[in-house]
Amino acid sequence: MEMGHKLNDFFKNASRVPELPIFKHLSPAADIFPGHNDLLGFKKAQELALQAALEIARHIEEGWSERKTAELLNTWLLDNGVKSFFHYAYVWFGERTRFSGIRRTRYKEFMPTDRVLLENEVFILDVAPIVDGYICDIGYTSILGKDPVFNQAQDFLSDLKAQIPSMFKTEPNGENIWRKVNQDILDAGYDNIHALYPFSVLGHRIYKTKQTSIPAAKFLNFGGQSYWNLLSRGLFGQLLNAQYDGSLKGLWAIEPHIGTPDFGAKFEEILVVDDGDVYWLGERDL
What we know:
36% of the residues lie in helices and 21% in strands. The protein is of the alpha+beta class. The strands form four sheets. The chain has a five-stranded antiparallel β-sheet, with helices on both faces. Strands 1, 2, 3 and 4 form a four-stranded antiparallel β-sheet that branches. The N and C termini lie far apart (49 Å). Mean pLDDT is 86; it is low at 1-26.
């Protein structure tokens, strides 16, 4: 129990690391709230990523593999002007949408596999392109067929999405937000699947990034530039989880992920958190 408290305190303190002067020197724009033109840039990036997911979902067929679907999603984005990725496409089918058989400590198990999609199965597409320097990260859930349980899960996520902005206005820190979302999920009879993500993240910060000399080659589905961006900003201060105790101001990719006994479902979109104003970027006319 004492070790657990010590780890909890460590991660809480680590979430405030970006406030140190050295990180402001490494990433001088990290604490600057984006202006109107930058918000337009983030919105454009998100719209392109969502368009890609919808296009792939419209064509997906029984027998496609996770790996093939991920390659098609990445290729569509590259063909439409994307030159780099915060992370390349993740695709999960059926029971893997609720992370059955995926261990948090075995990161490669999150990667797309040869598992094929069957009729009436749920699938999740998750990708984070960088468009003109603007990072976005989206998650899209659909089904190849029909299932009333799936519809109920989507309705719950829609209700949760509507409630999240008010949580950022009323809750004092990220820890309380994480725990409130977790309790809402459990009270509705679902499992909290984002608790199984690395670091149990409900979301992460996004920002405008500059091109660097870091190679574009990917490692564990993330571009090389992404590791620099996260580390130069203090890492734990970029992750919204049950230990987050830093500032909430900025842009967040929020991704609640729920599970039924047979499948999981999620959404992921950009949430804008400003002084006294919190809104989903995709729902605001700019």
